[in-house]
Design brief:
The chain has 23 helices and 28 strands. The protein folds into three domains: 215 residues, 3-Layer(aba) Sandwich (Rossmann fold), CATH 3.40.50.1110; 311 residues, Rossmann fold; 98 residues, no CATH class. The protein has 706 residues and is an alpha/beta fold. Strands 6, 8, 9, 11, 12, 13, 14, 15, 16, 17 and 18 form an eleven-stranded mixed beta sheet that branches. Strands 2-1-3-4-5 form a five-stranded parallel beta sheet, with helices on both faces. 48% of the residues are buried. A hairpin with a 2-residue loop joins strand 24 and strand 25. The longest helix is centred in the first third of the chain and has 22 residues. 31% of the residues lie in helices and 22% in strands.
Length: 706
């Protein structure tokens, strides 16, 4: 087969090709069914090469040389080099060749057998187009995505596609050709792939736009993500990556204080510079980003610490709704230090209503979140923003600003009802928990309330048969709509209050929560990024005792995490308890102790968190419970300790008496001679009253006796 290919090339070389000076620039789109336009109702006009022709205009002639089912591999089940489209592309003698091949090589007939030939075969294909036109620009494309809905996704396609994607840049470098990317702009848009493989008209338009911008180098000039704005806080003490887009080849210069850094936008329009670490600075600075054609000015920029505040409704719970709000309304400013707020808010809440078609379209486009006012603001500038801002985040940030005496910035992007899986990136779930991606409206891994509410919000789309309509409760969605838009804006850490929408299945959450933390740490390239979270409070929901205990154990399993307890602040009938100041300040205590290691908390560790069970052991008369953070063990209400229970050898629990003994609790029950386990506060709405001398509550728990 290869001999035939070589003979064909030699024959082609013997032909002389004349170009008319005035002819349009020829662009050959080489590929498989995706290039061809399979599945499109009007492929002649809607396939990506056709849309590319419309975008490029009269100065270009675009040819579609896609062949359905074609493989890059010469010994694949349908080699592209043996198809008539290949010969037609050669005859076209294009000035620009865009190659998108490799999708069909994930077939079990191909990659397992001939993977070792992929690089050499691709190089030979590239060389063939250089024979046709030695001056041709060759553009290789990273492959468009294959959805988890593909029938072979878990049986090999997922992994083989990953291997092919990894070698494509190596080939581009080895053959000195250009590289473009169909994967990234389409990866987060599964709604554009009706069969999980072939893009619809809108998806083809995105591909055409990618190629058009790559060919012309026009990306709309200098741009930065929306989070870069007046009043922002830049993270102190760490190199700061600033990234954005500009027209290809433009030089970008970034200036702040005494620093200046430059970069050149690549062929994909992207640029990135890295600023050296800076010390905290409460003085307003001017931050500029410029090219020869445009200059962006950002005023009142300070250097301090930035925290991301995320989760679901209890993190989103507004200041004006909190119990403490009445005492706050008259304050002109909560702290003498720079304390800046930036909020991404949903365009429509996930209330029990049907969304209109415009909202549904914006949700699909990942435009569900938008900045509340468009820039960073403090309490004085925008009292209205403060009223709408997260109460827990506010009290957390205020305590940090007062204690650290540095500027503090808070980014809040919490959305009511969102589940853990919606905040994890797609690739992580594809490889670590793929089954949770399948048919999310009928997937038992996802809480039934989330599925029911989601179906209500997107009912209009479902009635029209638009079963790929997206929703914030869908796995990956919030990561794509609320984390990626932050563009890795440098942060110090995360506070997280979520779990209500996963409490139906603690075992699934035990898999998901570490994936969430890992996903975010990888995104920000901070393997030890602090992740402080709130344990669920008290509420009359039967699964909550087990879920709270699972959260307690997760903080021990996942490094650089810590948990704030709030079971003493719950409401038996309301999932949104109104006392938010203690929760925010408990998170701040954890940060001051574990992240900032302030001396006070080094000498007074029990001031950072409540009593934490370490072990349970038997002595002659009691079960001895040993606690950490147990200085001054007492009760919150001055009465005897309550809600302790001891299990007998049959795992049947009985009420127990308990009393404090230094940093231990002694527990016993006259009904249990051979205790095997102890639990505390083991009820959905806990009435436990164990606290330490700083008034911080113990977590409810279950523990086996050693």
């Amino acid at each position: 087969m290869k001999n035939k290919f070589i003979i064909f090339l030699l024959a082609f070389c013997s032909l002389s090709v004349a170009w008319a000076a005035e002819r349009p620039i020829r662009v050959a789109c080489v590929g498989n069914s995706i290039t061809y336009g399979y599945g499109l109702a009007d492929r002649e006009h809607d396939a990506y090469p056709s849309q590319l022709q419309q975008m490029l205009g009269e100065g270009y002639e675009v040819g579609n040389f896609g062949r359905s089912g074609a493989t890059l591999l010469f010994r694949g089940h349908r080699p592209y080099t043996e198809q008539p489209e290949f010969r037609q592309a050669m005859d076209f003698a294009a000035d620009i060749v865009v190659i998108h091949l490799g999708i069909n090589d994930t077939d079990p007939r191909d990659w397992p057998n001939y993977r070792d030939e992929f690089i050499t075969d691709y190089c030979a294909l590239i060389d063939s187009f250089r024979v046709a036109n030695p001056k041709a620009r060759i553009i290789m494309a990273r492959l468009s995505p294959i959805s988890n809905r593909h029938h072979r996704f878990q049986s090999g396609t997922r992994d083989w596609l990953e291997e092919i994607q990894q070698v494509i840049p190596l080939i581009a470098k080895a053959r000195n050709v250009e590289l473009t990317d169909f994967h990234t702009p389409l990866y987060n848009r599964p709604d554009l792939f009706p069969d999980g493989l072939h893009p619809n008209k809108q998806g083809a338009a995105i591909m055409a736009d990618v190629v058009c911008k790559h060919i012309t180098g026009k990306y709309g000039g200098l741009k930065l993500p929306a989070i870069y704005s007046n009043g922002m806080i830049l993270q102190r003490g760490t190199p700061i990556r600033i990234q954005g887009t500009a027209d290809a080849g433009e030089e970008v210069e970034v200036k702040i204080k005494n620093q200046r850094a430059k970069a050149v936008a690549g062929k994909d329009g992207r640029w990135v510079v890295e600023l050296k670490p800076m010390q905290a600075d409460a003085r307003p600075n001017l931050f500029t980003v410029s090219t020869k054609n445009r200059r962006l000015f950002f005023e009142d920029v300070r250097i301090g610490d930035v925290w991301l505040c995320s989760g679901q409704s209890n993190m989103a719970f507004k200041m004006r709704e909190a119990a403490e709000w009445e005492g706050m309304k008259t304050l002109e400013h909560p702290t003498p230090h720079a304390f800046m707020l930036y909020q991404l808010a949903p365009i429509s809440p996930t209330d029990n209503v049907e969304w209109d078609s415009l909202t549904l379209a914006r949700v699909n486009e990942l435009k569900y979140m938008k900045p509340s006012i468009g820039y960073w603001a403090d309490w004085v500038q925008h009292h209205l923003l403060a009223e709408e801002f997260s109460a827990i985040a506010y009290y957390f940030g205020r305590m940090l600003a007062d204690s650290l005496d540095i500027p503090v910035g808070l980014i809040c992007n919490a959305v009511g009802g969102t589940n853990t899986e919606s905040w994890i990136d797609r690739r992580t779930l594809e490889f670590e928990f793929p089954n949770i991606l399948n048919d999310w409206l009928n997937n038992d891994f996802i809480q039934d309330w989330c599925r029911e509410r989601g179906a209500k919000n997107i009912a209009e789309a479902l009635r029209k048969g638009e079963n790929l309509q997206r929703h914030p409760y869908q796995p990956c969605y919030m990561y794509e709509a609320a984390i990626e838009p932050l563009a890795q804006f440098p942060i110090r850490g995360v506070i997280w209050y979520q779990g209500e929408s996963n409490a139906h299945n603690k075992d699934a959450h035990e898999r998901l929560f570490p994936l969430l933390v890992e996903s975010w740490r990888r995104n920000w390239q901070q393997p030890q990024m602090p992740f402080l979270f709130v344990q669920l409070s008290s509420l009359n929901r039967p699964s909550w005792p087990w879920f709270r205990d699972s959260q307690r154990l997760l903080q021990q399993k996942v490094p650089y995490t810590a948990m704030a307890v709030c079971s003493d602040l719950g409401d038996s009938l309301d999932v949104h308890p109104r006392r938010k100041q203690p929760v925010g300040e408990r998170l701040a205590r954890l940060a001051l102790a574990k992240v900032y290691q302030q001396p006070y908390f080094t000498t007074h560790p029990s001031a950072s968190q409540g009593p934490s069970i370490r072990e349970a052991r038997k002595d002659k008369k009691h079960v001895v419970l040993t606690f950490d953070y147990a200085e001054g063990l007492t009760t919150s209400d001055g009465t005897a300790l309550r809600t302790f229970e001891v299990a007998d050898e049959f795992s049947i629990f009985h009420p127990a008496q308990a009393r404090a003994d230094g940093t231990n609790i002694l527990v016993s029950s006259p009904e249990v001679r051979n205790p095997t386990a102890v639990r505390y506060g083991w009820e959905p709405f806990s009435h436990g009253n164990l606290v330490n001398g700083y008034g911080l509550p113990a977590s409810t728990f279950f523990t086996v006796i050693k």
